[in-house]
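Researcher: Sequence recovery benchmark, item below. Answer with residues only.
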C-alpha cells in the first residue's frame, strides 16, 4: 500500500516512518483515524455512526 506525505504530498511507502522527499516524520496514516473500530466485534465503521453496522452494538460517541 501507499500513502501520501502530509507535508509535500508525495506518494510514499505505507510503512515509511519518514518521507524520503522532504524528511517529514510520518506519525500515522490519517485515513486510519477516520475509521471507528467496534470494541465488540472489531469491525470497521465510518465515523459518526451510532451503532455498529455489523453487530449492532451501541458505540461510544467519541467520534460523533
Ligand atoms: Zn514529504
Ligand atoms: Zn460490532
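Model:
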Amino acid at each position: 500500500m501507499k500513502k501520501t506525505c502530509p507535508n509535500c504530498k508525495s506518494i510514499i511507502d505505507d510503512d515509511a516512518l519518514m518521507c524520503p522527499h522532504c524528511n517529514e516524520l510520518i506519525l500515522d496514516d490519517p485515513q486510519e483515524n477516520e475509521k471507528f473500530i467496534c470494541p465488540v466485534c472489531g469491525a470497521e465503521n465510518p465515523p459518526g455512526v451510532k451503532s455498529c453496522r455489523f453487530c449492532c452494538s451501541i458505540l461510544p460517541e467519541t467520534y460523533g
